[in-house]
Amino acid sequence: TVRRDFVFPNRIKGLQISDINQVWASDISYIYGTNGSLLGYATSLIDLYSRRLLGLAFSRTMHAALTSKEVLEQAFKERKIHTFQNLFFHSDGGKQYIETKFVKALRDKNIESSMAESCYENAFAEAFNDILKNHMLNDLDINSFAQLEKCRQFIKNCYNFNRPHNSIQRMTPVEFEQHVLTLQPCQRTMLNIK
User: Fold this and answer.
1) How far apart are CA 194 and CA 192, in angstroms?
2) 8 Å CB contact between 139 and 128
3) 27, 129 Cβ separation under 8 angstroms
């Protein structure tokens, strides 16, 4: 991707995190049906530490209200926190992530923007896209936007409650978040962001 004139620096490179709500990562991806037709776009938002999918939106256009803003609102509902402390919202340089209302929504919750210079610097969100497109959606045999939209909550629940990850001790994201709550900060595994 080409970086546009207005971007935020990559503020998470080299960061070490040991809790949820320290880095959220988002990306937008094309979604094709099993018949090869373009169905629309998927926008995801994950918590890097727990890999929990906090937001997932499907849209026919790439407008910020239907993509970045939608997943952000889902994450706010999921987390139920009025003001965050030391949280970065990380994305690529897409215009949806610099749209005025979106940036204001971040600032209203005390969230700082961070942007990747390449897809390698947004690897967690890219990895989710791979799982979504090449595993979850393929198994569902979806060929219309209506079908895609109907399975959104199913995908979110399946990923968060049923899909264990090697990187989080073979726990699901929800199990891992519950486990982290039982640990003192010094007992938690450190995640180094490259």
Assistant:
1) 6
2) no
3) yes
What global pTM score does this model have?
0.94
Q: What angle do CA 111, 115, 119 make, to 5 degrees?
A: 135
Of the pLDDT bands very low, low, confident and very high (cuts 50, 70, 90), residue 28 is very high
Q: How far apart are CA 21 and CA 98, in angstroms?
A: 20
Mean pLDDT computed over 100-123: 95
- Exposure of 142 in the CB half-sphere (CA atoms within 13 A): 25
How is residue 106 written in tokens?
């971040």
Q: How far apart are CA 19 and CA 42, in angstroms?
A: 26
Query: Which residue is it, tokens 């040991």?
Result: 18
> Sign (positive/negative) of CA torsion 96, 125, 57, 85?
negative
Instruction: Return the residue matching tokens 């490259």.
Output: 194
